[in-house]
Amino acid sequence: MRTDFAAHRVAVAVTEGAPIFELAVPCEIFGIDRPDLADPWYELRICGTEPSTRVAGGFTAHATGDMADLVRADTVVVPSCASVHESPPTALVAAVREAHAAGARIVGICSGAFVLAAAGILDGRHATTHWMHAQELTHRYPKVHIDPKVLYVEDGGVYTSAGTAAGIDLCLELVRADHGAGVVNALARRLVTPPHREGGQAQYLELPAVARDDTRLAPLLEWARSRLDQPLTLDDLARRASLSRRTLARRFEETVEMSPLRWLLHERIHHAQRLLETTALPIEHVAANSGLGTASNLRRHFIRQVGVSPQSYRRAFQGRQARRPGH
């Protein structure tokens, strides 16, 4: 049913070399008129500092608005930038700052958070970005409270998301805020995506190959990895390394940047992830084979570290060819 309200104005900032996917997501969600879901829908403008901008993949984005239109928008979306190591365009940073001061809802997708941080509007706020860029964002903007584990976060009308597909999650959340759950559920069905995903970025993190090249600890680590299904204590590790407990702990902090027992739990969870991805073993067997004992113990530690239950992780990541070992 048509209302008398004006369409909500969404400005999507476009920058040189911007990744296609993160730029396309807000255009798909806000830029296609859907009067059967809500009328009016949104009024979308692609705003650049130039009439046309070369983005990734050899594509060119033609601007339908400029920085003045961005400042006047109700919602400003800043997708990923080409490189987090380069300073964002000064004109864009200034326009985002001005739009925020004027009361606009500000959204950063993936590395778009760097533009928001450069504008100063993330200072003192909770934010996120792609987990690969979280450390760089923290280093350059220490006043920002970065949580690299979540898919998206809102703090005082400023929204940020993790990378790539998390931009869909965040844009759907904005539609939910504007039009309600019924509309966002219908939209998600059309996009063939969940209206809300479980967990956060933790389930997508690449676990680092910690200290594998450190000649002092590598033999011990490989020995422990081959025995994850067995009880292992700090004394067992120290005895194997021919070190005192204190020396072993210090060496782990120096090379692995965590305690021996924390590293052991980290490896057990990693092994459980591989079993969940590649086998059809019952959860109880996954727990036993990874050294976590019971299914309830696996679930408790798995949710704490990965952000979802073992069952949810298996549904999301297990390949169709997964089989029980030996089959």
UniProtKB/TrEMBL annotation:
Q: Which residue intervals define the domain HTH araC/xylS-type in the entry?
A: 218-316
Keywords for the protein's UniProt record, in alphabetical order = Transcription, Transcription regulation
Q: Which Gene3D superfamilies match?
A: 3.40.50.880, Homeodomain-like (1.10.10.60)
Query: What's one Pfam family here?
Result: DJ-1_PfpI
Keyword Cell membrane tagged:
no
Q: DNA-binding: is it a keyword of this entry? A: no
Q: Which PANTHER family match?
A: ARAC-FAMILY TRANSCRIPTIONAL REGULATOR (PTHR43130), HTH-TYPE TRANSCRIPTIONAL REGULATOR RV1931C (PTHR43130:SF3)
**Protein name as annotated:** AraC family transcriptional regulator
